[in-house]
Each structure stands twice: as C-alpha cells, then as structure tokens.
Amino acid sequence: MTASAAKEGRGKIMKKRITGTLLCMVVLAALLAGCAERQRLSDQFDEEEVKKAAEEVIQDLNSGEIDALVEEKWSAIMKNALDADGVKEQIVPVIEELGEFESFDQEAVTGGRDADTEQEFAVAVIKAKYEKRKAQFTISFDEDMKVAGFFIK
C-alpha cells in the first residue's frame, strides 16, 4: 500500500469518527431537551390575555405602527435594548420579506422565570402565515404585560 493510500484510509476513518461523535452529540442534546420540564404559566397571567397581547404586537409590526408599539407595549428594559429605530432597522425588514400577513396559525403560552430576579414571565409562541412563508414569534411579557423579550424566526 502506498503512503497516499494509507493517508486516504486514515482520513476516511477520522471522518467516520467525527461524524459519529457529532451524531452522538446531537442525539444527547435532543434527549436533554426532551427531559427539560416545561414551566407552567404563573397564576399572575391569563393565557388568553397573553395570546391576545402577542397577536396585537404582531399586528402592530405588520401595520408599521412601530413608534406606538415601542412606546406603549415595550418594557423599559426592552426600550433600552431595542428602541423604535432598532425595530425599524432590524425587525421591519424581516417582516417586509414575509409578504402580506394572512393569518395566525398555531399558538402556545408557557411560563418563565428569571433565575436572578425571580421575576415571572409569560411566553407566547405564535406561528403566523404570510404571503411568502411562515414565521414564528416568541414574545415574552412581564407582570405588567409589557414586552420583555422578542424573537422572530
């Protein structure tokens, strides 16, 4: 066997080992995620009110009412992290790429808690249909029903 053939054989073995290791890591991560307990919604929140508030946030984004959205519905922490100009620069282009809003698809609400402050949150996950494709919104609300977290995928 030539040196290049031996080197190629070792390369294939290493690729198989790396692929196997990565596959094991993915399976392990999936198992750990499956074992994580979903936190219940705190009694401080009403599930239907959380869904309605999340839908309103999405509708405000769809209609371009960014200044009012940030001023009225963003928490103080969110305003500092992502002001109206930031929303216009970072989120509005994503919304525009989706096309026209068609409907809300699936909705789920769960609870959350900040480990440092022990503050309770409600987290709404809303899937929405748009003209070009679907989007998933994850919107967190603080106890005052102000947006404390926002993510679109």
In the predicted model, the low-confidence regions spanning at least 5 consecutive residues are 14-38
- What is the beta-strand fraction? 15-25%
Shape: globular
Whole-number average pLDDT? 82
Which structural category fits the helices and strands?
alpha+beta
State the strand order across the main sheet.
1-2-3-4
Largest sheet: 4 strands, antiparallel
Q: How many domains comprise the coordinates?
A: 2
Helix content bin: 40-55%
Radius of gyration: 22 Å
Distance between the termini: 52 Å
Strand tally is 4
Element order: H for helix, E for strand:
HHHHHHEEEE
Supply the number of helical segments.
Answer: 6
Task: Fill in the CATH topology of the largest domain.
Answer: Nuclear Transport Factor 2, Chain: A
Q: Given this structure, which CATH class of the largest domain is correct? A: Alpha Beta
CATH architecture of the largest domain: Roll
